[in-house]
Design a protein that fits this description.
Transferase(Phosphotransferase), domain 1, binds magnesium ion, binds adenosine-5'-triphosphate, 36% helix, 455 residues, eight-stranded antiparallel β-sheet
């Protein structure tokens, strides 16, 4: 198992979970606050350089929200805040600045917001064309406290502008994969004036307040397309039937053909970003979203979570030379194998490892064929771009054994529940066989390569 069960969302009471957990499925309005520009900074992608441009898109009536601020309204930035965060951390820890009137509680904008799978990002159900807001929520979920670190929040729009630029200049990503990148197009960052001066203070105290506005998925979808997070494919209904099995039935395809389409929709953009640009997303079940055509056949991929979860090659590549300084400073660097690890663990071990036996049990697709189809998709990409041959060696997805990522180890052995000055990294310990190589099945017409069984 990935993580000790029932030990997430630490800080949420039962009542909090009933109100604010995604499975409660209750859209609720979020309150807004105003923060004086002495404490807050705004950033936006081109076209949203000024906060007024963002507020004009995101709010029905920005002046109504600002009414409480009086003549100095222009000195303040506005942002939504999670009521739990306001009550638990902002009121107690920002009390001096609330008292001085530099942080001012405002009414809600009235739009109902639905928490998504990550608990702290909210979809606007009244205006689906408006942004998803990602908010700091000081609960410990999976590995980290879910704050918004200052440098990353400031840099989010710059990272987005750069990533969208890469995608838009690359015809393969843009026109063939038609990969959807949910841009983090604007942010407000509020640094805590005292904690920021204390290097050894636990990191969660440096990520308490702010907001990121992220493009919503709906407007990117073509008529009839539907989208589901990759994690949804692992769900089984109370009737015992897996969603994936239902989708396969609806598609009218054979299980193997549908699975091949799933890989053809999800793998090529991830492989292209890795091999061509030395860049990985963290394509786990919550960040990767599968887009389906009207027959529930997987057709393309949407990805989110950039400034937090995009990693670059530590080894310099010409494609990364034009990286803007602001982006270079904030994105983490990883060794080539470290980059592959995001695909291996986030996707193969975190999602496909569970999907394979589920499909075997419910649709009869043998697990060995599942992995052979995945391998075939990677090789298909490699055949398409032979000029990237050196990169296939550098970012070698076909190593016989891969690192074992074990989040339980962080909790039970390494970090426990202690405070730490820096965000922890997911623990690695030992290795597991790489199913891409370990499964010795040849598909019809598959070329004769890389089928050495793991030792
Ligand atoms: N199937 C899943 N796979 C991964 N994470 C999941 C899943 N379901 C829920 N989660 C939660 O989603 C979050 C994933 O972490 P991640 O850093 O990708 O997101 P985030 O930055 O908190 O928010 P967002 O993705 O909205 O930007 C964690 O809080 C994790 O517990
Ligand atoms: Mg995420």
């Amino acid at each position: 198992p990935w993580i000790v069960p029932n030990k997430g969302r630490i800080g949420f009471s039962g009542t909090d979970a009933a109100r604010w957990a995604p499975e409660a499925r209750s859209p609720r309005p979020l309150p807004w606050i105003a923060v004086h520009r002495r404490l807050a900074e705004y950033r936006g992608v081109p076209g949203l350089e000024r906060p007024e441009q963002l507020y004009a898109r995101e709010l029905d009536d920005v002046d109504a929200l600002r009414a409480a601020l009086g003549p100095d309204a222009g000195d303040y930035l506005l942002l939504p805040v999670h009521p739990w965060q306001w009550d638990e951390t902002i009121l107690p820890l920002f009390a001096p600045w609330i008292a001085s009137g530099e942080i001012v509680p405002l009414p809600s904008d009235g739009d109902p917001r639905l928490p998504q799978q990550s608990i702290r990002s909210f979809f606007n159900t009244a205006h689906p064309e408006r942004c998803t807001v990602k908010l700091p929520l000081s609960v410990l979920n999976t590995l980290v406290w879910r704050g918004l670190p200052v440098e990353r929040t400031l840099a989010a729009p710059a990272v987005t502008a750069w990533l969208l630029g890469l995608r838009d200049a690359d015809p393969y990503l843009r026109d063939e994969c038609r990969v959807i990148l949910l841009g983090e197009i604007a942010s407000v960052t509020v640094d805590h004036p005292l904690y920021r001066e204390l290097p050894e203070a636990p990191y969660q105290y440096k990520e308490l307040l702010g907001a990121i506005w992220r493009q919503p998925l709906g407007p990117f979808l073509d008529g009839g397309e539907r989208a589901r997070t990759l994690a949804a494919l692992l769900q089984t209904g109370s009737d015992g039937r897996a969603l994936a099995a239902e989708l396969i039935d609806r598609s009218g395809l054979l299980p193997g053909d549908w699975t091949a389409r799933l890989f053809a929709a999800t793998m090529p953009p991830l492989l292209h970003f890795l091999y061509r640009y030395g860049l990985v997303f963290s394509p786990h079940g919550e960040n990767a979203i599968v887009v389906f055509d009207p027959s529930d056949v997987p057709v393309r991929l949407a990805v989110k979570d950039f400034v937090d979860d995009v990693n670059l090659s530590a080894q310099s590549l010409p494609e990364l030379h034009a990286l803007p300084a602001e982006v270079a400073e904030v994105l983490l660097r990883e060794s080539p194998q470290g980059l592959c690890q995001f695909i291996h663990s986030g996707l193969f071990i975190g999602v496909f490892r569970y999907l394979a036996p589920l499909l075997e049990a419910q649709t009869g697709l043998p697990e060995t064929e599942f992995w052979a189809l995945l391998r075939a998709e990677v090789l298909r990409y490699q055949d398409r771009f032979p000029e990237l041959g050196e990169r296939f060696e550098l970012f070698d997805l076909f190593r016989p054994r891969i690192d074992r990522l074990c989040l339980n180890r962080n909790r039970l052995l390494l970090d426990g529940y202690q405070d730490r000055p820096h965000r922890p990294h997911a623990a690695r310990h030992g290795t597991v066989p790489n199913a891409l190589v370990a499964v010795d099945v040849r598909l019809p017409g598959q070329r004769d390569r890389i089928v050495t069984p793991a030792p």
